[in-house]
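Weekly puzzle thread! Below is a chain. First person to post its structure in token form gets bragging rights.
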Amino acid sequence: MADIINLRQARKAKARADQTRQAEINRVKFGRTKAERKAEALEEERKARMIDGAHRDGQNIKTD
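Winning reply:
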């Protein structure tokens, strides 16, 4: 005999599995490692320091 299943539960389980599979694909496609994020943050900080260090003393600096 065939097992009796609840179609609503089966549909929800399939949807959860599909979402999990899509999330894995997106993590591989768009994700970055912790080292990559840290390197980018350090680079942005370095750029900001260089820009701040390039200002002449005594000038009015407008920041928005």
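Puzzle host: Confirmed. Bonus trivia for everyone else. The chain has two helices and no strands.
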